[in-house]
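Example record

One chain of 506 residues, shown exactly as stored in the release files.
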Amino acid sequence: MGLEALIAAFFAVLNGGSLLYLMTGVMLGLTFGVIPGLGGTTALALLIPVTYTLEPLDAMYLAGGVMGATSFGGSISAILLNTPGTAPNAATTFDGYPLARQGKAGMAIGAAATASALGGLIGLFTLLLFIPIARDVVLSFGSSEFFLLTILGLAAIAVSVKGKLLRGLVAACIGLLLAFTGANQFTGDTRFTAGIDYLWDGIPLVPALTGLFAISQMIELALKGGSVAEDGGEVAPKMKITGVGAGILSVFRHWTVLIRGSVIGTVIGAVPGLGGTVAAFLSYSSTAQTAKDRDTFGTGNIKGVIAPEAANNAKDGGSLIPTVAFGIPGSAETAIFLAILVLHGMEPGPTILLQHEREVYGLIVALTVSAVGASIIGLLFSRVLVLITRIDVNIVVPVVVTLSLTGVYVLEGRMADVLLSVLMGILGYLMIRFDYPRLTLVIALVLGETAERSFHQIRLISDGQVIEYMFGRPISIILIVAIVITFLLPAMRSLPARRRRARPGE
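Predicted structure tokens for this chain:
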């Protein structure tokens, strides 16, 4: 069944306007990827209302095109301007920009394009292998397991933000408060509505996410001023896009670096909350530490471009594993993607995998085609795309804000949705300003309803003996142990350092 759905989804791309949606997503993803500070999260948030009128499969192609293209788009500005388009591309600047300054920009971009495409394919191949197993895993999960899984997802995300455990938990609590706003689905009582009728049905996901990512990012850009590229630097005259072929061949010469980076990206992507930044830096550092020519890293070593770019694209396939199997977003992008699924009647959780197989495989095809297509298009138009970073924010901000708020209004025709987007945008900016992780809030907002529903179901099934019921199920015990270990990880990591400080003379 899976192979048939995959083949059907692939041929569906070639029919009608599906290919147009996919390529539109690729171009949008490249554009938002090149612009520092935006990235795929903002692009997807902007697209949420646009997909409302589309068929579910076409929405998957459009969203998949964006998700598969932003990673490589960010590497272009990272190499040519030393300004990463997205956070994960920061690792690419270490060797990409020195190569560009040496007149080898084409080689660096060629290597980044090839590593991105192949890394994405490897990550998606892993996802394809996992999907048949995931169906059986999902069927073995009950209310207890899904409740504990949401807690584990929140804990993993909060802990993964290094040095921000308390802030991550605070953000998660805010997200849960927002998720619990409105009528209790079991008792009918209203909570946190302040007498406002609009909030009786809860916080609408689409306006909230649009504000939290798109609007907040525009507020930050507007206050920063100037052009989008932070350093305002120009592409040096000697940075000619030549030697692309040599960059492509270098990926195959260093195929072990490609495989290592792809595996790291897939594994890290599958852990909710870690995402591309952790994957890219871990891949870069592991490559630099194990290489014989480690002293050349940071001065223009091509392996320093291949490693993070392979991991960056491979993480897309990995992050979809918890998303399609359990409804737990593996990254901010997949959190926004879940909003698109909800918009088209696909609830987060096992129903995505069991009842919407056609759409899931459509997304896989879109990511596969976009990973390759974005690399080809990026190579052809890299010089043009990088000019976007010179656009004044006074032009970018009004356009993005207008499109975002118009899309939110058109969705339901309610001005209250627009006001909610603005308020969430202000909250999102404050979280950026004071360095609170937005992803933790988003995951809590998305999973809050599932956690509450599962908890009430456990309470009814167990006649109020919740703890005893959980400890009577083997999978639940495993998840409880995993939650405890997750919370203990920060202390376990800092223990060796504390011991060294405690030793006299050190």
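Notes: The first strand starts at residue 182 and ends at 183.
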